[in-house]
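Quick one:
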Amino acid sequence: MNPESRRVAALVLTPPNSAGYFPARNDGALAVQPIGANASSGQTATADAQQAAARRLATPVSLARSYTGTGTNAHDWHFHLTLEGDDEATTRPSRFAPAEDKDISGNRWTAVPQRAPSTAPDPQWPAHPTAQVVDLGSGCGREPRLAGLAADRAEPQEHGRPDLTGRSFTLASVGGTTSPPPGQVDLGPNVVVFDPSMPSASIQRKLDAIFAEQEKNQFGGQRYAVLFKPGTYFNDVNVGFYTQILGLGSTPDAVTINGAVHVEADWFPPNNATQNFWRGAENLSVNPVGGADQWAVSQASPYRRMHVRGDLRLDDGGGWSSGGWISDTKIDGQVRSGSQQQWISRDSQFGSWTGSTWNMVFVGVEGAPAGTFPDPPYTTIGQTPVVREKPCLQVDESGDYRVFVPALRSNTSGVTWEHDSAPGAALPIDQFFIAKPGATADQMNAALTAGKNLLITPGVYHLDQPLHVTRPDTVVVGLGIATLVPDGGITAIDVDDVDGVKVAGLLIDAGTTSSAMLMQVGAPGSSADHSANPTSLHDVFFRVGGAAAGKARTSLVVNSNDVIGDHLWLWRADHAADDSHVGWSSNTADTGLVVNGNDVTVYGLFVEHFQKAQVAWNGNGGRTYFFQNEMPYDVPDQAAWMNGEIAGYAAYQVAPEVTSHQAWGLGSYCFFSTNPSVACSHAFEAPTAPNVRFHDMVTVSLNHQGTITRVINDVGETTPAGTKPVNLVRYP
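Output:
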């Protein structure tokens, strides 16, 4: 191909500093080379591109770079430059071109899977117009169009190719800094929306491009939500880090994937799923190829409101795994837990279940095995006492977006949606402030003060003040593992002691200045009765260290009464993107969860590696259904880890003054790899009282790296060598 034949739309690709941009390498890095010191800022992009293209390309394969215009509200535009000579301007939410499409002259050209844009603004690029591929009508093919140009820029631009005569863009204003058309919603640059009219090949290319970026991206800043409008699709949906797959129908059966919605562990041989975190699938049905789908995950990877017309595997070929969560889900066939160390399933329906390792908990699950702990280690509770399902984004019959907020329910089992729509309320999207990357805490708080709810789109948001929820029934929902980073030692979210707040789908990642707490529900001393309309937390995750050397004394403090926790992972990182981001004196964190309120209920409580008591429960009437814990790996020596005269800290500690508490299905493991001589006196600690009851506990020393001397208080055996569990059916 003759590089001089490339022509691009002037005024679109000309950065103010007159630098020439090369296409990205496969890893997404951007090479920048100056065109010339004397080049004027008015030099046309055609000349820039000709000079840049004449240089040697960095790699000998087809390349693509998404150039993202910043400062726009409705769309991003992207320009793709490939070695095949194809130049295409596209935007989200336009249709993605299929693998082979026809231009208006009848010639065929090849589209390149577009790399998703960075969420970080590029200071070299001011607010730009958008461009999109638009349908020209039946029989007319598709054509790139610029959009949103200012009047003085609205000139047709030539789109040249080496093998075709030039052709002109048709300009159409479809967004930019203007409001989206009626019925459309701007969900930011990291939300991809598919509808069943799109070619399967085009959808697949986009899915593959996201997965290629996210497969190994454990501590990266990219976030994605992939939304499927109601209909039927033929695709293989492989789900990587920080990716949420979400159906937009009123029930899971409104969206059907013929293929797979799955998680593998190929990136971490040999098939090790113990670090498959931070992803999710919701509100879809799957007809799996071969009759079985796979969700090989560990923590913070919820599988909610799903319907699998076949079997579901929870590991990858027998490789290690440490999950996990299923709720409001129907599996027509068999669930096979494989190597999973532990798992909780809530309010679901299974054809059957097979497999166990240490701690499998079923609450309100039809088709669950009988409770036979510890042989096999099944803990089965027939009904869920009180619960509210997670709010979720949907579209209604007119195609308008809404957020469905399920109702509070008591004494439940099975799925909510099989025979009709689940009970609850649908809130119009105009009742939400839609936060997109770059939104500030001040903007979000202003919206909350004005009576809006929050829909936080995928991205990483640094906060300089807490998000303060003061209004009863406020809904705060994150998409695509939206991440909040409290800078300067502040609290990320502060919820007042009010009725019915719902917080869902967020990762709160501690900043490098230590916070006293990352989230608080209710002020200290809160005493109001919220039993008729409790606050609920769904898929809310906390991280201290990993992406940075984060610090926080406590992750979550619950002072309000009657709060419901519905899948929580509180994690002091044991590994990181950089060794300096973890360590006994680096990512410091005393306690994961402190509960001061009464009658608090938590389903699926995962708390790991904190340096003192992992959970400190001070309120009466508390209930926990499933607890998974690992003690800190990096204790330097016993002297550094003493609770007064007691060796180590309990993983789950109920205060001496508590008179009523119950917990089912609890596991705590030690792996004192820094110093295997370290011991913990007991994993669980509780007062001896008639209404304090623990059911089905297990302790394990992984690879016999250290010991747990007793299970609870002074009861239970010491963990032996050989990664063998110590089980205790009840206490007292």
